[in-house]
């Protein structure tokens, strides 16, 4: 005798199967949050390294890219981590803004301190070491006069 009911007798008559001990609930499979976590980590790194300029630009841009992709996937329902994706986007933007501000301030300081003149002098000097040394002395003197700082190195300690 087969253990399957004959055709046409579905569902089987009651009493042939024991009742389930616990009700079965449908459980949705967990959604991947890898892109959102990546965006968050890159955003944090971009914000922390914005003072290095390259780190701020590099990590900030990648945090934006991963954050946008993660947010699109989270909104369409194929991935999770909406909050982390948004946080990664915000931190990436802050890292980029910090890097841009530091770049602008650094460039203006460089120009104000005579850096462009120093670069021009070095390029005109070519390979003549005495002219390069003269350019360096003039730039150091300009910095010392403008900012009242002494750029000479401290004396080296004497060996024992």
Q: Label the structural class.
A: mainly alpha
Helix fraction, binned, reads 55-70%
Order of helices and strands: HHHHH
Mean residue pLDDT: 83
Count of distinct strands: 0
Q: Helical segment tally?
A: 5
Q: Report the sheet with the most strands, covering strand number, pairing sense and barrel closure.
A: none
Estimated radius of gyration:
33 Å
Low-confidence stretches: none
Short synopsis of the structure:
The chain is mostly helical and 160 residues long. It has five helices and no strands.
Q: Secondary-structure map with pairings?
A:
Blueprint: H1 34-48, H2 54-76, H3 82-112, H4 115-125, H5 129-147
Helix pairs in contact: 1-2, 1-3, 2-3, 4-5
Structural summary, described in words:
By secondary structure, the protein is mainly alpha-helical. Among the domains are: 65 residues; 33 residues. It is 62% helix and 0% strand. It has five helices and no strands.
Features:
5 helices, single chain, rod-shaped, mainly alpha, 160 residues
């Amino acid at each position: 005798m087969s253990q399957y009911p004959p055709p046409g007798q579905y569902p089987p008559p009651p009493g042939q199967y024991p009742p389930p001990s616990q009700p079965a609930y449908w459980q949705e499979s967990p959604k991947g949050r890898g892109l959102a976590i990546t965006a968050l980590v890159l955003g944090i790194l971009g914000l922390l390294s914005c003072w290095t300029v390259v780190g701020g630009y590099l990590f900030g841009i990648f945090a934006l890219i991963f954050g946008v992709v993660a947010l699109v996937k989270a909104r369409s329902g194929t991935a999770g981590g909406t909050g982390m994706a948004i946080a990664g986007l915000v931190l990436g933007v802050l890292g980029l803004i910090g890097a841009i501000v530091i770049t602008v301030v650094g460039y203006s300081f460089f120009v104000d301190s005579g850096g462009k003149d120093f670069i021009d002098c070095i390029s005109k000097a070519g390979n003549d070491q005495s002219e390069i040394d003269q350019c360096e002395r003039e730039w150091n003197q300009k910095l010392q006069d403008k900012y009242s700082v002494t750029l000479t190195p401290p004396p080296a300690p004497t060996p024992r």
